[in-house]
Every structure is written in structure tokens, then in C-alpha cells.
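lol forgot to send this yesterday, sorry. C-alpha cells for the thing we talked abt
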């Protein structure tokens, strides 16, 4: 499914920066060496540290119902599934949001787009001897979920009186219960989450 939905965003970023740095895209480390330019082994190598950005977007797309199984169809002529144009646009929007999300790297708040560009440039400097070390570990992905089972249980068990004590209105509690009862991911405002964290009835 991940391959079906694509890794074009990471691929495009790596390819663009790679050509600017001057690396040969056919010479890879993880993927097979290629003697023809159409097989860009190094580009695929550079995607690997950032492939999770697409993976998590796929999960988010299905959990949020931005994508449904009914959005996909099988043509039968090339054994591939495709998905409707409107669904594709919804997924592209999720991908764009994910790559534009901020992340702290070396004390600076950067977009993942920028991080990928920097790491590719660092690889070029490392291979040319202009940089002594290469770090693809920082920034590490943080994949903590807001809507874990404990939080869902707290919301569903919370009475109106208890919510009032925490400063959570009835309308907010109703919305939270509706989201927690549904079989899909949901977000909780940080101010509300802090109030729920102290719940220990």
C-alpha cells in the first residue's frame, strides 16, 4: 500500500538536491549500483531515512477517513490498484502537511523538506572530504500518539460532573466522547490533554 500511494515527495526532494550537489544518482550504497541513469540507486538510498514520513501519512489517511478502500480501483491490465483523483488530492495534502511540519534539528526549528535538503548536501560534503562526519540519526522521528487507549478510556469514563471539575464544558466532553468512541485517530487540544492527564478517578 505504501508503494502504491507513493514516495514521490521524498524522491523529488532528494533528486532535486542531489543534482545540485553533484552526486551521481546511479551510484548507491544500499541499493544496487546501476550503470544506467534511469535507475537512481542513490536517490532511493536517500529516501530510506525519510520513508516513515510517507508511511505515517498513509496510516493517518486511513484512520482519519481521508482515504477509504472504496477510493481504489483495479484496472486489470497492469495488475496495479489506482485511486480516484479527489482521493489522491486529499492524500497529497496530507503528505504536504507532513513534510512541512516543524521539527527541531540542531537547536533550530526546520521543516522536514529543509532537513532532507540539508542531509543530502551533507552527504555530498562528506563524500568529497569537506565534512568529516555524517549524521542521519538527528532529527529522530517522534511518533507518539495523542489518541492512545488510556486517553480514550479516560474520556469515555469521564462523567459530566468530573469534566466540570476539570474545566471541560459539556459540549467539549460530548465531542471528545464521540471521537474516542470512533474507530479512527483523533487529536486533542493541548490544553484539554493537560487537564485529562491529571485524571485518576
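and heres what i got for the seq, position by position
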Amino acid at each position: 500500500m505504501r508503494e502504491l500511494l507513493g514516495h514521490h515527495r521524498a524522491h523529488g526532494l532528494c533528486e532535486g538536491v542531489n543534482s545540485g550537489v553533484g552526486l551521481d544518482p546511479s551510484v548507491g550504497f544500499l541499493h544496487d549500483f546501476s550503470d544506467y541513469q534511469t535507475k537512481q540507486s542513490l536517490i532511493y538510498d536517500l529516501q530510506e531515512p525519510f520513508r516513515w514520513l510517507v508511511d505515517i501519512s498513509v496510516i493517518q489517511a486511513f484512520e482519519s477517513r481521508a482515504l477509504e478502500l472504496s477510493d481504489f480501483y483495479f484496472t486489470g491490465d497492469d495488475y496495479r490498484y489506482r485511486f480516484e483523483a479527489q482521493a489522491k488530492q486529499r492524500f497529497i495534502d496530507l503528505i504536504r502537511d507532513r513534510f512541512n511540519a516543524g521539527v527541531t534539528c540542531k537547536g533550530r526549528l526546520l521543516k522536514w523538506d529543509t532537513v532532507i535538503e540539508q542531509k543530502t548536501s551533507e552527504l555530498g560534503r562528506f563524500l568529497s572530504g569537506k565534512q568529516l562526519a555524517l549524521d542521519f540519526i538527528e532529527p529522530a522521528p517522534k511518533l507518539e500518539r495523542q489518541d492512545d487507549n488510556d486517553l480514550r478510556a479516560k474520556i469515555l469514563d469521564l462523567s459530566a460532573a468530573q469534566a466540570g471539575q476539570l474545566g471541560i464544558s459539556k459540549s467539549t466532553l460530548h465531542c471528545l466522547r464521540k471521537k474516542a468512541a470512533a474507530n479512527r485517530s483523533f487529536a486533542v487540544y493541548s490544553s484539554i490533554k493537560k487537564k485529562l492527564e491529571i485524571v485518576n478517578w
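The radius of gyration is 22 Å. anyway ping me if u want another try
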